[in-house]
Amino acid sequence: MIAPLQLEGVPLPEPLPSFFERFYRTNLRRITGARIRSSDLMRAYQSWALANGECSINYLMLARLMAATGHRKVTSNGVHFTDVGFVADHAQVTDTLPSPFVGSLPPVASRRSRKKSPDLIAKVDAALLDLLEIRKALSALAEPSEPHLAVQFTLGLS
């Protein structure tokens, strides 16, 4: 994996792999207080991956990906992930996967002003999301010698 970028000593969160983001958005919801046994989650992922032609993962990778989405792993009568539930059990809850950048960084104050500008923060978040899309396109590009094509496609220039 690529080392995360640094911003005044605070690492940016690494974006989720697109396959796990798709799995999470279609099968899981953030439900405070809910728990899923790791073996049940792994079984659900493996079934989804097989049905959708996605790659297989192991328990260590599952734990890392769940931690990246903000779910702790706890051991209590087995291993569980906290604050997460299956869509089938919580159909009324909409997609709850947070943007990897929104609200994840502490505010950076300039020397002139210590006030946060919501407009500026929203613009930075939007720019980071655009860069994330470019990064995904670059990583999916079959020809690494022509990254400009991925950027042009992502920005709608080609």
Provide an overview of this structure.
By secondary structure, the protein is an alpha+beta fold. The chain contains 5 helices and 5 strands. It has helices at 18-27, 38-52, 59-68, 118-140, 147-154, and strands at 6-7, 10-11, 28-37, 73-75, 79-86. The strands form 2 sheets. A 3-stranded antiparallel beta sheet has the order 3-5-4. It has a two-stranded antiparallel sheet with strand order 1-2. A hairpin with a 2-residue loop joins strand 1 and strand 2.
**Spatial shape:** globular
* Helical residues, percent: 40-55%
The assembly state of the depicted protein chains is: single chain
Q: Please report the number of helical segments.
A: 5
In the sheet with the most strands, the strands line up as 3-5-4
- The CATH architecture assignment of the largest domain turns out to be Orthogonal Bundle
Strand content: 15-25%
- Report the mean per-residue pLDDT as an integer: 75
Q: Poorly predicted ranges (pLDDT <50, ≥5 residues)?
A: 101-114
Q: What is the straight-line distance between the termini?
A: 29 Å
Estimated radius of gyration: 18 Å
Structural class: alpha+beta
How many domains make up the coordinates? 2
Order of helices and strands: EEHEHHEEHH
Instruction: Specify the biggest β-sheet.
Output: 3 strands, antiparallel
CATH topology of the largest domain, by name, is Arc Repressor Mutant, subunit A
CATH class of the largest domain: Mainly Alpha
Tally of DSSP β-strands: 5
CATH superfamily of the largest domain: Winged helix-like DNA-binding domain superfamily/Winged helix DNA-binding domain
